[in-house]
Design brief:
The structure is a single chain. This protein is an alpha+beta fold. Helix content is 42%, strand content 12%. The protein contains eight helices and seven strands. The longest helix has 16 residues. The N and C termini lie far apart (47 Å).
Length: 226
Amino acid sequence: AGPKGLTGVFLMKRRDFSLIWGAVGVSAMVPSTVLAQGKPFQAGDDYLVVKPAAAVEAPAGKIEVVEFFWYNCPHCNTFDPTLEAWVKRLPADVVVRKVPIAFQDSFIPQQRLYYALEAMDLVEKLHSKVFAAIHVERQRLDKDEAIVAWVASQGVDKAKFTQQFNSFSVVTKAKKATLLQNAYSVEGVPALGVAGRFYTDGSHAKGMERALQVVDALVAQVRSGR
């Protein structure tokens, strides 16, 4: 079944999430050439100021950018290759952190999936494959058993992954991810946070390609001390 009640083509909003199992991917990007050029990005329009500031994990001297995502979100699937290409061009003082969201309890297994992969140093190998399994192969990776079975099918030791998936550290990271999502008042995904101080997404920036331009400008603003 296709998506029902999706708002726009830029992100999945909170109210849409209970409706989109099996959703078909829709492009999350708009060519920047169709957008107004040369106009400074505006707080309250292109991005929001986060008050109070959200917590950051980046060490001193580094600027943290957070990507909020959900594996089932077709827009996150579309955006992921663009984000990865952008990350490769970043200066050394910018650190990108992926944060899986949970707008409802049914999202928690996929949060733990991501953090278990992270704990086993498997994000680079399997992160994009999770998206492909869901959006191309149409697999339902929403339950613990299905997730463990799929990861094992990728050649990962089932017992070791299960141990990490159920570990206190992974469960704790999932809870912290939800707290950070709430601190940024995430409205939908994909979304981006900068230095605990700024938030943008496809709706505010009028497309995720332009959202990355907004983030570039905000990073420069943070770097300059403004």
